[in-house]
Structure formats: C-alpha cells, structure tokens
Amino acid sequence: MEELIARITQKTGLDAATATKAIGMILAFLKKEGPTAEVGQLLAALPGAEEAIAQAGGGGGGLLGMMGSLGGGVMALGGQLMGAGVSMNQMQPLGRELFAYGREKAGEDVMGPIVGAVPGLSQFV
Questions:
Q1: What is the pLDDT of residue 116?
Q2: Please, which residues have CB within 8 angstroms of residue 80's CB and are 6 or more apart in sequence?
Q3: What CA–CA distances, in Å, run from 20 to 62, 70, 89?
Q4: 41 in a domain, yes or no?
Q5: Domain-embedded: residue 123
Q6: How many domains does the chain have?
Q7: How far apart, in whole angstroms, are the C-alpha atoms of residue 74 and residue 26?
Q8: Which of 52-55's residues contact partners 24+ apart within 8 Å by CB, and which partners?
Q9: Is 125 part of any domain?
Q10: 14 to each of 8, 22, 59, 85, 87, how far by Cα in Å?
Q11: Does residue 102 sit within a domain?
C-alpha cells in the first residue's frame, strides 16, 4: 500500500493521509458496486486494502453514503472524495493511478470486468 500511496501523492499532490482515505473510499465503493469475484481478487492483490477501507469508514455513511445506496454511484463517490479533500482536478489522476496499480498487481482480467461493471467508472480510469 505504501508504494501506491507514494505514487498517488506524486501524481495528485495529495498528502499521504488524504490519499489513503481516498483509496479506501474508492475500494469500498468497488466492493459495494463491482463484481464480487473480481473485486475480491483485487483486494487480495493489494496488501493493506481492507485496512484502507476500514480507515475510510467502509465507504462513507451519512447523506453521501445514502446517495450512493440510492443510485448515486460514481457521482456520490465523487462527492465523498471532495468531502475528504480531493479536488475535481485530482480525481482523474487518482483513479488512473489506482487502476494502473491494480492492473500491475491483479491483472487486466481482474480490472477490466470491474471497470466494465460500474456505470460511469471508465471516465475516471
């Protein structure tokens, strides 16, 4: 996880704590919205992923979390990330770096179905 955090802080300018929280939020979102088998393989390939999800609060509660459960999807995730201190300009490089790292660790056969299964996700990765 340290390597991923370093890559994201370099690409986005986020501090390590915010990057870690953002990674956890995105992974929690994927765990909830993505294909179970592939997301499980991704999380297994990223040591520290479950801890990052737990530190991020499991994906966000409150109003934004409710929006996500009511079909807010990627837009609700964007709202959660902004609430955590990630700007709109940082979201795309954050997503691209996270998914590039996922492809390196878990493979395209895992990442492709995840991106394909979550509506709107492809524009961020």
A1: 94
A2: 25, 29, 59, 60, 64, 65, 68
A3: 20, 26, 17
A4: yes
A5: no
A6: 1
A7: 9
A8: 52/1, 52/20, 52/21, 52/23, 52/24, 52/27, 53/24, 53/27, 53/28, 54/24, 55/20, 55/21, 55/24
A9: no
A10: 7, 10, 19, 8, 9
A11: yes
**pLDDT by 10-residue block (mean), the chain, 125 residues:** 97 97 96 96 97 79 44 85 96 96 97 94 84
Q: From residue 34, how far is each of 38, 103, 118 by CA, in Å? A: 8, 15, 6
Between CA 73 and CA 72, with CA 59 as vertex, the angle to 5 degrees is 15
pTM of the model: 0.88
CB 60, CB 25: distance < 8 Å: yes
| pLDDT value of position 68 | 41
Domain span at residue 23?
2-115
pLDDT at residue 58, rounded to an integer: 62
pLDDT for position 123: 81
Burial of 94 (0-12, 13-18, 19+ CB in 10 A): buried
